[in-house]
Specification:
This protein is an alpha/beta fold. The protein has 7 helices and 8 strands. It has a 5-stranded parallel β-sheet, sandwiched between helices. Helix 2 links the parallel strand 1 and strand 2. Helices cover about 40% and strands about 20% of the residues. Helix 2 packs parallel to helix 7. The two termini are about 30 Å apart. The chain is globular, with a radius of gyration of 16 Å. It has 2 domains: about 140 residues, Rossmann fold (3-Layer(aba) Sandwich), CATH 3.40.50; about 55 residues, no CATH class.
Length: about 220
């Protein structure tokens, strides 16, 4: 399949990604986990085409102070923390500042857990093949946190699936995940959004709507 350099939007990217995951269609052991918010529209299309259950898996990027788009780490549900020490050292970020960012993102993580789930328990991934889906990867910090956190629930396999990623992030994922699908790995990579014609922010309402449709 020829992958366009520019995806129309996240849902069109999800349809393209689903083609590369077609081997997982109608398998009772597969679960699609979306990284909110941007990964949800992508994962929804994947889950629909694979006829697999879908849920969200909450991870928050820890933006470097003064460089919000640059991840100095990530925080996942359950308290899993992944640090990007190269970024932290390079920018001279102190532990006190890191703690402040972690505290703020932990509060947002808790808010989203309640907003998206209400009182519904997450899907059980024990013994299942988990497809971790996001709209793209720049540094891979967010996805690394998600992999570490998901593995605590003893899945059979963890497969990372994204429409676009930096070459370095994709290579790193191959070292820690059981499988990786990156449709496009441009040699020059600055930000995920540059590979989408429409990269409008996914809202909480859209996440709730798509999650409700997936669970219906």
């Amino acid at each position: 399949m020829t992958v366009p350099e520019l995806f129309v939007d996240r849902r069109s990217a999800g349809r393209a990604l689903a083609e590369s995951l077609a081997g997982h269609t109608d398998r009772g052991d597969v679960i699609v986990l979306a990284l909110p918010r941007g990964g949800v529209p992508v994962a929804f299309e994947v889950a629909q085409r694979l006829r697999a259950p879908m849920d969200v898996f909450l991870v928050r990027k820890l933006g470097a102070p003064g460089h919000a788009e640059l991840a100095m780490g990530a925080l996942a549900t359950g308290g899993t923390l992944v640090r990007n020490d190269q970024v932290i050292r390079g920018l001279g970020i102190g532990e006190e500042m890191i703690d402040r960012v972690v505290d703020a993102e932990r509060r947002e993580l808790d808010r989203r857990e309640h907003a998206y789930r209400d009182d519904r328990a997450p899907l059980d991934v024990t013994g299942r093949v988990v497809l971790l889906v996001d709209d793209g990867m720049a540094t891979g910090a967010t996805m690394r946190a998600a992999i570490d956190a998901v593995r605590r629930h003893r899945p059979a396999r963890v497969i990372v699936a994204v429409p676009v990623a930096s070459e370095r992030a994709c290579q790193q994922m191959r070292l820690i995940a059981d499988g990786v699908v990156c449709l496009s790995t441009p040699s020059t990579f600055f930000a995920v959004g540059q590979y989408y014609a429409d990269f409008a922010q996914t809202t909480d309402d859209e996440v709730r709507e798509l999650l409700g449709l997936a669970l219906a």
